[in-house]
Amino acid sequence: GFRPKIDDFLAALDLFVLPTLEEGLSIAIMEAMAAAKPVVASDVGGVPELISAENGALVRPGDAKSLAEGIASLLSIDEAKRAAVGACGRRLIVERFTVGQMAQEHLRLYEDLNFRRRRGRGANAAPAPSKE
Q1: What interhelical angle do 27-34 and 79-96 show, nearest 10?
Q2: Residue 124: phi, psi to the nearest 5?
Q3: Among 5, 7, 60, 116, which residue's CB has the most CB atoms within a 10 Å radius?
Q4: Distance CA 40, CA 49 (A)
Q5: What is the rounded CA–CA span in Å between residue 94 and residue 110?
Q6: Strand order across the 39-42 sheet
Q7: Angle at CA 53, nearest 5°, toward 15 and 77?
Q8: Contact, 74 vs 85, CB < 8 A?
């Protein structure tokens, strides 16, 4: 749920851990990555779209040993390397998941769908009638 001053909370972390059995594209993970924190998270749902070996660790869902190994792998590297892992995650968020980037991706998707629809009905096809 909502937490005030999330930046203060994230700043205090060495890494962010989200063990879960089900997850979509996690806002919590994206917030941690935007704060340049390495992430350990379960390999479920949309999480693999965010986490790679370069910016964190994916672990088997429901597997405590895998979770412990993922956490240990990031805590065992020196602080500078851990910061580099976090910076890699931040770059991903800035490049792919800012509001502007996501709006551009949606626009491209709509343009592509419209192009495909028109192509399927012929190059000179009129737009679909409005549902209003």
Answers
A1: 120
A2: -100, 15
A3: 60
A4: 13
A5: 22
A6: 16-18, 39-42, 56-59
A7: 50
A8: yes
* DSSP-assigned states of every residue in the chain: ---TTHHHHHHT-S-EEE--S--SS-HHHHHHHHTT--EEEES-TTGGGT--TTTEEEE-TT-HHHHHHHHHHHHSS-HHHHHHHHHHHHHHHHHH-SHHHHHHHHHHHHHHHHHHHHHHH-TTPPPPPP--
Q: Which of 4-18, 24-38, 55-69, 114-128 has the lowest mean pLDDT?
A: 114-128
Task: Name the CATH topology of 6-96.
Answer: Rossmann fold (3.40.50)
Torsion angles phi and psi, residue 119, rounded to 5: -65, -35
Joined together, the tokens standing for residue 92 give 């991903």
> What tens digit of pLDDT does each residue of 22-63 get?
999 999 999 999 999 999 999 999 999 999 999 999 999 999
